[in-house]
Amino acid sequence: MNNPSAFGPIRAVYFDVGETLINESTEYGTWADWLGVPRHTFSAVFGQVIAQGRDYREVFQHFRPGFDLATERQRRADAGLAEHFNGRDLYPDVRTCIAELRAAGLFIGVAGNQTARAGRLLHELNLGVDLIATSDDWKAEKPTQAFFDALIESAPCPPEQIAYVGDRLDNDILPACAAGLVTVFVKRGPWGYYYATQPDVQQAHIRVDGLEGLAKQLTRD
After folding, report:
1. CA 153 to CA 140: how far, in whole Å?
2. 88 with 123: CB under 8 angstroms?
3. How many other CB atoms are there within 10 angstroms of residue 20's CB atom?
């Protein structure tokens, strides 16, 4: 599944957030509750939208035409139901992977399309990483070059020594490859399972089902 000759020494590893570190089942279930639809119905429509290559935010339009995500996030917050995740939503292989990367002396970052609130929640998880940055922090979203420029600028090494780990081809693997990074595709979550069947997944330098053992693959001699 891997192409070990395609990259040199790795000095920094950055992780996407949703479905790479955080299992988003709780959050999407909360959105289904907020919209007043069964969770399995929301999940089914969500899967259809992803399989059609559309923006996940279009899911909400199926249930509430004219839905505005920013407005509804604020309404949820005002109702005491702001987005939330904690250690229970962290995938079980995350802390071990980060600890192994740290023991190997690598710089570790977390960077994804997240709100400032999500950034604060990530800090509360005490992951032991060197950097946590969100698209709100950098005023740039994946898959734009501006996001990956900011990521590269924040790293202590050149792009060819940075690995980016994510579950999506469109937002993670393909733009990270274009920016000159080493890429790790994780097959989990709805995007991961869908994109694992697409030909472009072969562009990822490493393809894994989870984070267990990833440190060894990135720090091989």
Report:
1. 13
2. no
3. 26
Give the three-class secondary structure for 151. helix
SS3 3: coil
**Cα–Cα distances in Å, from 118 out to 10, 111, 122, 190, 214?**
27, 11, 6, 20, 25
For the record, the structure tokens of 124 come out as 């509360």
pLDDT at 1 over 80: no
Who contacts 112 (Cβ-Cβ below 8 Å, separation ≥6)?
15, 16, 17, 18, 20, 134, 135, 142, 166
Mean pLDDT of 167-192: 97
Q: Which uninterrupted H or E stretch holds 107?
A: strand 107-112
Q: What is the pLDDT of residues 133-151, one digit of tens each?
A: 999 999 999 999 999 999 9
Q: Which of 13, 19, 18 is nearest to 119 (CA)?
A: 18
pTM here is: 0.94
N- to C-terminal Cα distance for the chain? Answer: 18
d(CA 44, CA 46): 5
